[in-house]
Design a protein that fits this description.
This protein has eight helices and 18 strands.
C-alpha cells in the first residue's frame, strides 16, 4: 500500500476569512506543509471492515487500537499544540441485530454530550520534537459519564463518532487571536470512526481485540496447564494428595452404597502406600548427597528404616458442607 493513501496533508486554504473579505485565505506557512500518517493503518482497516466498537465506561476506558500518527513537514523551530476531539457522524442512534450481525438505526440521536478537546500531554513542543518519533494518544479515555470531572471524552453509547486530529501552531505574536483560523490544521481518517458501546456487540470485534491487543493476552488461553513452567521454570509436583472420585451415578457421599465406600477406602489405602514408597525413594536419594555431613546421619538412618510420620489428609469442605449465607455472616 502506498504511503500517500495512508497520509493526509493540510489544506492550503479555508473558507470565510475576514482578512480576505470573506472569500478564502491561505493557511500560515508553519502548517501548510504538515503531513500526518496514521499508524497501524492495516489494523484499523480490519476493525473498520467489521464495524469498529469502542468501550465507554463511567470511569473511562482507553481506546484500542490506539490513535497514533507520524507527523512531517513542521517547522522544526516553531511550537505546536496537538489535540483531538470526537464528533458525531450522524444524528442517529443504533442497535445491534444479532440475527443478522449488523447495526441498524434505532432512532434519533440522544442529546449531544458536552464537546471536549484532549490535549496531548507533551504540548506545546517544537516541531523537531513532534517529528522525531511517533505521537501516541494512549492516555485518552472515553466515558459515558455526563458529570465526568477527569477530562475524559464524553460520548453517548450506541452512537457513531469520528475522531479528529488537530495541529495548532503557537503564534508568538500579540495579536495571534486575529490569525487563529490560519494557525491550525485538522486531519480525520475515515477508517477510525467507531460506535461507542458499553459492551462489545459483535463477537468478531471481541476476538480481533483479544488477538491484537497485547494487554489482553490473558484472555487468549483458558488452559491452566499452559502456565506450568512459565514462572521460575516450575515443574509439576511429584506427589498429589489422594482424592475421592465419585462413582458413576452418585452425586454426594450420602448416596454411596457400602460396597462403593469399601472400594474407595481400598483405593485410598493403595494410593497412600504408593505415596509412602515414593517418599521413601525420594528421601533415600536425598540422603546419598549427605553422606559426608555428620548432621545428616540420624536423618539418613530414619530414611533407611523407612520411619516417616503418617500422612495427614485435610478434609476440604464440599458444596453441601459449606455454611449458608446467614451462617457465614455470623462467622464474621
Amino acid at each position: 500500500m502506498n504511503v500517500p493513501q495512508l497520509s493526509h496533508r493540510c489544506s492550503l486554504t479555508l473558507a470565510c476569512c475576514a482578512e480576505a473579505g470573506g472569500v478564502t485565505c491561505a493557511k500560515a506557512p508553519q502548517v501548510t506543509g504538515v503531513t500526518v500518517q496514521l499508524e497501524m493503518h492495516a489494523l484499523w482497516q480490519q476493525f473498520d471492515q467489521l464495524g469498529t466498537e469502542m468501550i465507554v465506561t463511567k470511569a473511562g476506558r482507553r481506546m484500542f487500537p490506539t490513535f497514533q500518527v507520524s507527523i512531517s513537514g513542521m517547522d522544526p523551530a516553531a511550537e505546536y499544540v496537538l489535540l483531538m476531539d470526537f464528533i458525531p457522524v450522524d444524528d442517529k442512534r443504533y442497535r445491534y441485530a444479532f440475527h443478522s450481525s449488523s447495526w441498524l438505526v434505532a432512532g434519533r440521536a440522544d442529546v449531544a454530550a458536552p464537546g471536549r478537546m484532549h490535549f496531548h500531554p507533551d504540548s506545546p513542543a517544537r516541531g523537531s520534537q513532534w517529528m522525531k518519533q511517533m505521537v501516541s494518544f494512549d492516555a485518552l479515555k472515553l466515558t459515558n459519564n455526563l458529570l465526568d470531572d477527569n477530562g475524559h471524552m464524553i460520548l453517548n453509547s450506541m452512537h457513531r463518532y469520528q475522531p479528529r486530529f488537530h495541529v495548532v501552531y503557537v503564534d508568538p505574536r500579540r495579536d495571534s487571536q486575529l490569525h487563529a483560523h490560519r494557525n491550525f490544521c485538522t486531519f480525520s481518517f475515515p477508517e477510525t470512526h467507531f460506535i461507542a458501546v458499553t459492551a462489545y456487540q459483535n463477537h468478531r470485534i471481541t476476538q480481533l481485540k483479544i488477538a491484537s491487543n497485547p494487554f489482553a493476552k490473558g484472555f487468549r488461553t483458558t488452559n491452566p496447564d499452559a502456565w506450568v513452567g512459565r514462572v521460575g521454570n516450575a515443574r509439576p509436583l511429584p506427589h498429589s494428595l489422594p482424592t475421592w472420585q465419585p462413582q458413576e451415578g452418585s452425586h454426594e457421599p450420602g448416596s454411596m452404597s457400602g460396597e462403593q465406600r469399601a472400594q474407595n477406602l481400598k483405593s485410598l489405602s493403595r494410593q497412600e502406600d504408593s505415596n509412602i514408597v515414593s517418599l521413601s525413594t525420594l528421601h533415600r536419594e536425598l540422603g546419598h548427597h549427605c553422606r559426608e555431613d555428620i548432621s545428616c546421619t540420624s536423618e539418613r538412618k530414619d530414611v533407611e528404616n523407612n520411619i516417616f510420620p503418617p500422612l495427614t489428609f485435610i478434609p476440604l469442605p464440599t458444596l453441601w458442607e459449606c455454611p449458608g449465607t446467614s451462617e457465614r455472616l455470623n462467622l464474621g
